[in-house]
Amino acid sequence: MADALVLVRAQIDGDADFSGATFEGPVTLGRATVHGDLVLSAISSGQKNVPASQFRHRLTLNRTTVSGNVDMREARFDSGIEAPSLHVVGALAAAGAAFGDSLNLNGASVDGVLGFLGTRLISVDLGRAAIRELLLGAPGSAKPDWAGPDGKIGLSLRNAHVGTLRDTTAAWPPEVNLVGFTYDRLAGLGGRVDRSEVQPRPNEWWQQWLARDPVYSPQPYRQLAGVLALEGDNDAADAVRLADRERARAEAWQNRQWADWALLTTLEFTVGYGIGAAAFRVIYWVVGLALLGGLVLWTAPAARRKGSLWCVGASLSRLLPIIELNSEFTDFFNDPNRERLHGWQLVFFAVLGILGVLLGSVLVAAISGLTQPH
Fold it and tell me: How far is CA 237 from CA 234, 241, 277, in A?
């Protein structure tokens, strides 16, 4: 047992082994360099069993460099760890560790695996961190125990970058910060890892995961959709893009941005925001309006004599004024003396023509990608 330990700017040629130690006071290795492993975990060797380290006060590893691994499995940190800009050349293993306060790894870099299997956590700040592989969960392994209070960000990944993200559906805290978070791969997708590591999840899970960030930003949605598309899961990617537009529409309503809300609502109900097969939702509008126009024409005796199919065809021709289906349809609506159509019918088909132009414009914009955020 020790009261405190201060090793600021220390140069440790081998391993720094603190297994079995209990520190009542603060421990500081700020700006120190460990040319081996930093060992805080339990050690079992033959008949020798050494318990993991215990820190009653905060452990500080500010700008510390560890040339090997950081092993803090089963260690106890009553006041958490302050380790901004920590650089670990190997892996950082925290399986089974217990944190009574926050773990600050803001700006840290871990060249190996950063693992939290079975770790008891209050909150973790990985903002601006660079990690080769983030291991939050694996099938058959204990998930992290997020013991922080409700309404507090449990895990901040703001502007962090991870090469491979490996998790399970139950591994995440209720609230996360995903703004600016980027990753190259999702473990278990695309057949890149053993299939035993794959945990299937429905499209709704991805949407709920993104919704754990209480502050909306389109970037996390685009990031996930891009990775899913690269992995070949285009259906899930489209579902994420739709969820992005739906949340943007809800945000516009909540913030009273009426123009944005009206535009997004129009895009939703006409072309499904131009995403995937939903873009062809406009066909239902074209068919519905053409049938409605056919009913209106059926009320005109001159049109009714030509038959129901003719009425629908003429209505469709009016709805799509750019395309002349039949010159007879065009001549029929050229009725300045109102011999064939009443005034209200002419007004109806004038509005129908305007709607046709609008629907066509929205469809072209959707197909060309203009309805998507950039």
Answer: 5, 6, 12
Strand 43-45 versus strand 48-50 pairing type: antiparallel
Per-residue model confidence as pLDDT tens digits over 242-254: 999 999 999 999 9
**Rounded mean pLDDT of 348-358?**
85
Model confidence at 367, in pLDDT bands (50, 70, 90)? low
Q: How far is the C-alpha of 85 from the C-alpha of 36, rounded, in Å?
A: 18
pLDDT of residue 206: 94
To which residue do tokens 């739906």 refer? 246
Contacts with 14 (C-beta within 8 Å, 6 or more apart), sequence order: 35, 36
CA angle 364, 366, 371 (to 5 degrees): 125
Residue 112 has pLDDT above 70, yes or no: yes
Instruction: Evaluate if residue 193 carries a pLDDT over 60.
Output: no
Alpha helices per DSSP H over the chain = 203-210, 218-230, 234-254, 258-271, 282-298, 301-304, 308-319, 327-333, 343-367
By the 10 Å C-beta count (0-12 exposed, 13-18 middle, 19+ buried), 167 is classed as buried
280-301: per-residue pLDDT in tens? 788 888 889 889 989 998 988 8
Does the structure show a pLDDT above 70 at 373? no
Report which of 174, 82, 101, 88 is spatially closest to residue 134, judged by C-alpha positions.
88
CA distance 28 to 59: 6
Q: What is the DSSP string of 59-104?
A: EE-TT-EESS-EE-TT-EETT-EE-TT-EESS-EE-TT-EESS-EE
Kindly report the three-state secondary structure assignment for every residue of 113-162.
Answer: EEECCCCEECCEECCCCEEEEEECCCCCCCCCEECCCCCCCCEECCCCEE
- Please give the backbone phi and psi of residue 348, each rounded to the nearest 5 degrees, phi first: -55, -45
| C-alpha to C-alpha distance for 249 and 79, rounded to whole angstroms | 42
In the chain, where are the structural domains located? Answer: 5-200, 281-367
Backbone CA torsion sign across 55, 102, 115, 133: negative
